[in-house]
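Hi R.,

As promised on Friday, here is the backbone we talked about, encoded as structure tokens. Could you run it through your design pipeline when you get a chance and send me back a sequence?
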């Protein structure tokens, strides 16, 4: 049964001005009209291959004054929402192409999803990665079942090599784009959120250059209920989507492509389909600071036991930053789309987030080098219930009086108020104590 609505007309109008030529080598149907029934068909076809992830009420709701529901897409097998679009893309390929195989060239969530689902579908899959790729990513991709080839020192070298192999061997070269098939797969998130959370007022998505999730899900949600507010969130450092919307076309000359912390949200704006749909169907796009993203990652780890990357945390960061005051008292769903954060980066992010949240602080003071002075300092810290993380003493290079010692302490506190109390207590006893500003 064909479903026709005002929102389908909106989608048709949004895509009517898109040029029909494309330099992409992977798919020829990239500019087909995206209809609600296409997204429904995608949901039916991929239901046995991807997780129907929970959309759960969050304990963060009281803290931010609204009913928050978290759509936990990071629970997908490869830790990313990209699986939805990739699986529908692969199952839509002609059988002869499935026999020949596919090839990708990056270490992104898209490539990881292709590696896993192509292997599950018994499609030969090759992943070309540069020699600078994290060994953990290479190992994971091989464990998913892909043939991984290291080539070149840059992503561009890998892509050139992948295209050449595709041409010589008949593989289909895949790169993340905004074809109707891929967007329909990603749009199934919108269907699930609408089904799982009744009476929704707003849904928040990660945005940035790769805004396929935002565009595809907006198409589904706006068809089901035009009154649901759709909000995209990107980084202030890489406002790719906002700049592209302002220019009226995808921005191609960004120098910030694929920042290692932000991942896909810092990439180039890759297609007109997503951009036009976003311009027509998305109500608001906001930008947040890196500090807000880090605190958002900390909140999700503490309150939800969810270890996510910047792309997964950036939606909540809009609430952390206070960018959406109009949502107070509303029912809001946030899509937590990715959880692929490398361990060494996770450690750095959490340490920095604790500092930004005023829960780890450092101070220095000069004491006389007499027995018991360090003990008195530790007694004050114990009385104020501050946990000592590190303490260092410097005698040789102290520039003050002779026979003094410079002590530098790093301590953990409960919150900003506790930090202020500790600072006042130390300044009362040691007026020259110097605090290291974050």
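Update: got your reply. Pasting your designed sequence below so it's all in one thread:
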């Amino acid at each position: 049964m064909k479903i026709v609505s005002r929102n389908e007309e909106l989608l048709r109008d949004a895509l009517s001005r898109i040029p029909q030529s494309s330099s992409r080598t992977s798919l020829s149907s990239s500019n087909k009209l995206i209809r609600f029934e296409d997204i429904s068909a995608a949901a039916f076809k991929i239901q046995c291959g991807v997780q129907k992830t929970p959309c759960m009420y969050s304990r963060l709701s009281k803290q931010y004054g609204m009913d928050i529901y978290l759509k936990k897409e990071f629970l997908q097998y490869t830790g990313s929402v990209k699986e939805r679009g990739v699986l529908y893309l692969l199952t839509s390929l002609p059988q002869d192409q499935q026999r020949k195989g596919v090839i990708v060239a990056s270490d992104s969530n898209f490539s990881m999803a292709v590696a896993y689902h192509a292997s599950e579908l018994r499609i030969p899959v090759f992943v070309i990665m540069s020699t600078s790729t994290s060994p953990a990513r290479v190992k994971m991709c091989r464990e998913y079942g892909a043939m991984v080839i290291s080539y070149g020192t840059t992503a561009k070298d890998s892509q050139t090599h992948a295209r050449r192999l595709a041409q010589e061997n008949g593989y289909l070269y895949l790169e993340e784009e905004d074809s109707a098939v891929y967007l329909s797969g990603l749009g199934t998130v919108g269907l699930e959120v609408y089904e799982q959370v009744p009476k929704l007022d707003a849904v928040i998505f990660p945005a940035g250059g790769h805004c396929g999730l935002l565009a595809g899900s907006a198409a589904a949600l706006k068809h089901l209920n035009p009154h649901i507010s759709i909000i995209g969130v990107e980084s202030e450092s890489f406002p790719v989507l906002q700049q592209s919307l302002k220019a009226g076309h995808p921005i191609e000359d960004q120098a910030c492509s694929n920042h290692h912390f932000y991942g896909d949200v810092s990439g180039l704006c890759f297609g007109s389909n997503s951009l036009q749909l976003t311009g027509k169907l998305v109500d608001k796009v906001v930008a947040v600071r890196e500090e807000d993203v880090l605190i958002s990652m900390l909140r999700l780890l503490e309150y939800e036991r969810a270890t996510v990357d910047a792309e997964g945390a950036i939606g909540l960061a809009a609430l952390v930053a206070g960018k959406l005051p109009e949502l107070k008292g509303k029912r809001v769903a946030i899509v937590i789309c990715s959880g692929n954060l490398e361990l060494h980066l996770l450690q750095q992010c959490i340490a920095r987030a604790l500092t930004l949240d005023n829960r780890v602080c450092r101070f220095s003071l000069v004491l006389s080098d007499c027995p018991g002075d360090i003990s008195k300092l530790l007694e004050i810290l114990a009385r104020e219930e501050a946990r000592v993380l590190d303490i260092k003493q410097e005698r040789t290079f102290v520039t003050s009086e002779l026979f003094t010692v410079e002590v530098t302490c790093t301590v953990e506190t409960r919150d900003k108020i506790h930090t202020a109390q500790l600072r006042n207590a130390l300044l009362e006893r040691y007026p020259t104590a110097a605090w290291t500003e974050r």
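One thing I noticed while checking it: The two ends are 59 Å apart (CA to CA).

Thanks again,
M.
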